[in-house]
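Dear colleagues,

As part of the handover before I leave the project, I'm documenting each prediction I ran so the next person doesn't have to rerun anything. This entry is a single chain, and its sequence is reproduced below.
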Amino acid sequence: MLPAGVRVLVACEYSGTVRDAFKELGLDAWSCDILPTEKPGKHLQCDVREILNDGWEVLIAHPPCTYLSSSGLHWNKRTPGRQEKTEEALVFVELLLNAPIKKIAVENPIGAISSRIRKPEQIIQPYEYGHPESKATCLWLKNLPELKPTKFADWKYFRCKCGNVFEAELGEYGCCDGPAKIMWDNQTKSGQNKLAPSKDRWKIRSKTYQGIAEAMAVQWGFYACR
């Protein structure tokens, strides 16, 4: 267990995943979001901008990526008002990066933050932390070390360049000349995310993987207590 006095704020989190990972180590961890928490725990339901000056020692922030990620930026030229939403989101990210907190990590997919503010210190993948899935996640860090992988997940399938899929367990890696590509559990045959569209899709996609949350808590929690 770590010293309970270290105060950790997990911004823009309603799931409680990262908050609870820090809490398990004995830290005074709080989540904050305009939505209520999905799991009982220390949660501040408000705009995080209202509490950034409240004496936190670590900030882990997950700003909404709807108007920031590369997968959605192409809509900015097609949908009136969407570009303005991206500009507002970038201002919010800069506010988080410049918050009066000693140790900061901001997490988001590849997108506008990288091109408009600065490149991330690190890009991680769920399969580096025990989950057989692919989702490139950028980390912008202030006074925190890069995360070290904890457990590389095994892949189950290979996708040949012709589109055929083969099971790795059977020792089959393709039917055409050249190497086949790894196909992770959350990918379709074409390499896209296979999560079906739904009203809760954004919630499912935004939730932090448990293995990554635990790595953040252990590695950054111990670093903050040094």
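The CA atoms of residues 126 and 209 lie 7 Å apart. The chain has six helices and ten strands.

All the best with the project,
I.
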